[in-house]
Give the backbone structure.
Amino acid sequence: MYADDDGDNFGFGGFGGTFGHQRQGGLRMRQRQFSRYYSAYPVAAYPGNKADANYGGKIFMPASALEELSRLEIVYPMLFKLENDEAATSRRTHCGVLEFTAEEGRVYLPQWMMETLDLSPGSPVKVLNVALLHGSLVKLQPQSIDFLDISDHRAVLENALRKFSAMTVGDIVTIEYNNREYRIAVLETKPSPSAINIVETDLSVDFAAPVGYVEPNVRAPS
């Protein structure tokens, strides 16, 4: 088995909670390794209108990848580690797959993944299958106080996280709500301190105060 383990509520009103499906627990059965290099392109370059894929954590891979993964008997959900080993400093993230419809030799990534991995269109990216622990907790931090304009934070995040298969500490993902983009940093994951599988798991979501938030002063009554 290849297991990748490189890998608090707001003070102003409270978020967090548990959502998801019944937790399966534990790592998967032993499986053989899939490891390939592809040319990486942003979702914006994908033929057809796939812009919504920018607001999730899944990629487009070629049909040949599915054939090889099937031969290797890779179990579902298929999870992958993406690496840019040409970057000045090591860059990696984790993802699921949305479709096996990309042209041969190419993968298409959400824009936030391209930025995380420091990839330019056409840059090589290494794709490896991984087995991640089912997550029990993820701690997130909105990167702008604009996030506070959303009235039902938990419902918005629950819906947004359905588009992700994994959470990786250090990533800054992008979600969309009411035609606005929000950047969200992944600060902490459990039980793994680096990355977790969030498919069909009871996941508690905690939040740190947004970047730039200042706790209001509360004056004692005179």
User: Anything to note?
Assistant: The CA atoms of residues 125 and 134 lie 25 Å apart. The two ends are 65 Å apart (CA to CA).
